[in-house]
Amino acid sequence: MHCREDSRFAPNSPSGDTGFHSEKAFGSLPSPDVKGITVPPKSLEDKQCGTMRGLQGHHNSCYLDATLFGMFAFSSVFDTLLHRNRKDGDLEEYEKVQSVLRESIVNPLRV
């Protein structure tokens, strides 16, 4: 087996930038954040079928993308994760993680 670093991450770039490079990962496909509350579609429609559909991800593996798709694409069962207020004992980053999940992953998937 031959392993190599993911080319979307540039640990030794000339500029010293070690961040994620979405243009390498996804080309020029736009994936804007979608604010607010977006409900799942009531049925499969053309916008959910075909090429260029599904999750673009947010630094996720394909396994996590498939899990998130299954949890949120056509169901609202897990939506409390998207809208619940932070409680004692939650991570300090709770709101940030929740916002990324809701606005960068789930809402764009449902639009």
UniProtKB/TrEMBL annotation:
- InterPro entries given for it? USP
Q: Does the keyword Cytoplasm apply?
A: yes
UniProt superkingdom: Eukaryota
Residues folding into a coiled coil are: none
Q: Where is this region: Disordered?
A: 1-42
Keyword set includes Nucleus: no
Segments forming domain USP: 53-111
> Which sequence ranges are marked TM in the entry?
none
User: Keywords assigned by UniProt?
Assistant: Cytoplasm
What this protein is called in its record is USP domain-containing protein
